[in-house]
Amino acid sequence: MAPRKKQAPEPTTTSPVSMADLARELGVSMTTISRALSDHHSIGPAMKQRVLKLAKKYNYQPNRLASALRKGKSQLIGIIVPYIEGRFFPSVVHGIETAASKAGYNVIICQSNEDVAQERRNLEILLSAQVAGILVSLSRTTLDFRHFEKVRSRGLPLVFFDRIVEGDKVNAVVLDDQEGGYVSTRHLLSQGCRRIAHLAGPQHLNIYKNRRQGYLDALAEAGIPLDEALIHYSDMNQEQGIAAMRELLSLPEPPDAVFAAGDYSALGAMQEARRQGLTVPDDIAITGFSNEAFTLIAEPAMTSIDQRCEEMGQAAVRLLLEVIDADGAPFTPRQVALRPELLVRNSSLRQPEARLPAGKLVSSFTP
Amino acid sequence: MAPRKKQAPEPTTTSPVSMADLARELGVSMTTISRALSDHHSIGPAMKQRVLKLAKKYNYQPNRLASALRKGKSQLIGIIVPYIEGRFFPSVVHGIETAASKAGYNVIICQSNEDVAQERRNLEILLSAQVAGILVSLSRTTLDFRHFEKVRSRGLPLVFFDRIVEGDKVNAVVLDDQEGGYVSTRHLLSQGCRRIAHLAGPQHLNIYKNRRQGYLDALAEAGIPLDEALIHYSDMNQEQGIAAMRELLSLPEPPDAVFAAGDYSALGAMQEARRQGLTVPDDIAITGFSNEAFTLIAEPAMTSIDQRCEEMGQAAVRLLLEVIDADGAPFTPRQVALRPELLVRNSSLRQPEARLPAGKLVSSFTP
DNA sequence: TTACTTTACACAATCGATTGTGCCTATTAA
DNA sequence: TTAATAGGCACAATCGATTGTGTAAAGTAA
Q1: Is residue B5 scored above 50 in pLDDT?
Q2: I need a labelling partner for B162 at 20 to 30 A (CA). Which of A199, A202, A225, B154 fits?
């Protein structure tokens, strides 16, 4: 039972004022209050003023639950990410929350922990929370997409980001990985490198496949024949970067540059190269991918590709809001590809005069 | 108007089944459905089975809005953090989400962007969303805490973490910073260092004040007189670490160790020391604070204090759930201090035989 | 057999806001 | 002067689940 109706209310807690309270005080109906607050045309300006004033006086806060229940739509956007760790997802979430709150929405976050079953449960929860739309980055173990059918059948706006369902039937926002591979490789070519190795990731993951394709495109464009021996496949961690570099340097014709599809493997590669007495970038230029925080700390500072995390979040929200605002009207799914940004740093700059002084600031971010 | 009531429903969207639908199908009242699903004693086992079966058949998902509206409490926990960036807050949020979802709650996240006004708005929003409880880490600009009074007056469970309101009247979870400063300094003492400098942060922030106090405690315990010249105050970024080290090394009696109250300033200090030709840790040992990702990448790998981010999130949720479960009963506020963990790495290890080989793995985290 | 429980379910109010419809009073057009 | 229109507000149903109370039927004790 609501405490407010009791004769002896607990002295420690206060109930929020409702529209009914305002209506009583003003001697009008709740209809009038509701419409006055939402600036409905059928309420006179005088009454609107009175209502607004009273609402301010009592610091009236609408009960979003009641509103959402009645309207069938809340002001909540659901997010499902594999996890909230590392650099990428937190930044995307940051972008999402910022853009969403600017549009009057709040976000409710779920982690799938890379588990399809959990992803399915999260989806159910968001559905039962009556969210206005859902943003998803797929778990690694998601191979079957049927659980998203239910979302579609409810007519609930859905946008994938980063780890997406392929095809033109879904709304999606991704980084243009192929472009990233292309500009990275072109940059190395522009530095005079001709035997450019590639540390590639698992090719069943689209991001790695596309980065490799960009690499191939740039080489082809430059008329450089592909040497399969220069492409090393792994899971892209630091250890594997070390191993990869060891192999590459033992080739009869070792590379003069490395485009790694990930920063961690690039780091390992760089460490191993230096351990073997090579100078980076003079003997071997190195570029990474993802713009992890440590790329600026590394010595030399590592050239990398920024993944536009925040922009991705913003773009995802923009697209989602479009679908939400279409309000059930037929909406043709759209795929957005963000332009990656090449951050050129010392690990790939062959001209010493272009290099930045060592010990450069990490960033303006003060924790 | 609800589409489900129309004669010609849109063919593309399906409405979720409600309790009313189940009741109609079974020819019983909604009361029965509701109570059967919540295992109420007044429903017979046979009926319970029938209801459960039908609910499963139709994949019935309760409308959490309706439930929350009626019960006056949702299954949502509100979080307010300054931002979702860097290493600390995302990890805490990770811990919070994990612990909360385990307990059947979901989290709705707000960023204050270090702005009190935004923090106030976020609080209003969470209140109007009827959350079951709120977790807050204060913005830097929050000096006045009156907006939290409204939360208390509603009887809404509230727990602060990391950046807290001081005093024993609030629930709070923090890292024991004093202990962190103490163990760091003791560690340096154990390495034979005797002139230990301290890079201190703004003393109006409790975390920095406490870290400094721990440093003082350890020195006093070791019988080493305090030399104020060895304490350098700044805002703790990399640049200021460089400047600090420059000053310290120009002292008539330069230090043989540095305990920095932050990793970024420790990094700057380390870079400057090496630039001046000193060897770390042999000439000067260095420790940081926060266990930022780059501490493992740095050369030498940097000794630091782990802030127990995830544990902090978990602890905050545990405490919040206690208050929630107390359900209005008088609850004596509690303050929890987490034990920091000293991660000893090469930057402070004077005995070469104890050191880890360079090029050690960053971590098992594969992005 | 009578009286009293217990079991099993339905009725109906309720949470707080929204909205289609209806009604009355001015105002304007014819 | 009459009719038509617009303005301004109230009524009451509604969203979907929860819960105090009422009431039969079945079971138990006296």
Answers
A1: no
A2: B154
Domain residue limits, chain A? 18-62, 71-175+310-338, 177-307+343-354
Contact call for B69 and A69, based on CB within 8 A: yes
Instruction: Identify the residues numbered 274 to 293 in chain A whose C-beta atom is closer than 7 Å to any atom of strand D.
Output: none
Query: Within 7 Å: CB of A24 and strand C?
Result: no
Calculate mean pLDDT across residues B293-320.
Answer: 94
The answer to whether the C-beta of A90 is closer than 7 A to strand C is no
- Degrees to nearest 5, angle at CA A92 with A91 and A98: 90
Superfamily of structural domain A177-307+343-354: Response regulator (3.40.50.2300)
Question: Which residues in B lie closer than 8 A to residue A66 (C-beta atoms)?
Answer: 69
Q: Is the pLDDT of residue B359 over 90?
A: no
- Strand pairing category for A285-287 and A335-338: unpaired
**Other beta carbons less than 10 A from residue B241's beta carbon:** 29
- Residue that is written with structure tokens 């700044």 in the block: B234
On chain B, the residues whose CB falls within 8 A of the CB of A132 are: none
Residues 6+ apart with CB under 8 A from A224: A189, A194, A196
SS3 assignment, position A265: helix
The low-confidence residues of chain A, meaning pLDDT below 70, are 1-12, 353-367
B267 exposure class (CB count in 10 Å sphere: 0-12, 13-18, 19+): buried
Between the CA of B24 and the C1' of D24, what is the distance in angstroms? 21
Looking at the domain that runs over A71-175+310-338, which CATH code has it been given?
3.40.50.2300
Q: Give the architecture (CATH level 2) of B177-307+343-353.
A: 3-Layer(aba) Sandwich (3.40)
Inspect the interface and report whether the beta carbons of A367 and B125 lie closer than 8 Å: no
Q: Which CATH class is domain B20-62?
A: mainly alpha
Reported as a single tens digit per residue, the pLDDT across A306-356 is: 999 999 999 999 999 999 999 888 899 999 999 999 999 999 998 776 666
pLDDT of residue B271: 94
- The DSSP result for A180-202, as a single string, is HHHHHHHHHHHTT--SEEEEE--
Question: Residue A13: its pLDDT value, please?
Answer: 76
3-state helix, strand, coil in chain A (%, to 5): 45, 15, 40
Reported as a single tens digit per residue, the pLDDT across B22-64 is: 999 999 999 999 999 999 888 888 889 999 999 999 999 999 9
| Burial of B42: CB neighbours in 10 Å, binned 0-12, 13-18, 19+ | exposed
- Please tell me the distance from the alpha carbon of residue B355 to that of residue B190, in angstroms, as a whole number: 15
**Sign of the dihedral defined by the CA atoms of residues B139, B142, B145, B146, in that order:** negative
Question: Collapsing DSSP states into helix, strand and coil, what is residue B313?
Answer: helix
Do the domains B177-307+343-353 and B72-175+310-339 match in fold? yes
Interface residue of A84, A175, A365 to substitute, partner B, most B CBs within 10 Å: A84
B72-175+310-339: CATH homologous superfamily?
Answer: Response regulator (3.40.50.2300)
Q: Find the radius of gyration of the CA atoms of chain A.
A: 27
Identify the CATH assignment for A18-62 out of 3.10.310.30, 1.10.3720.10, 1.10.260.40, 1.10.287.110.
1.10.260.40
Closest-CA distance, A221 to chain B, in angstroms, reads 31
Across chain B, mean pLDDT equals 91
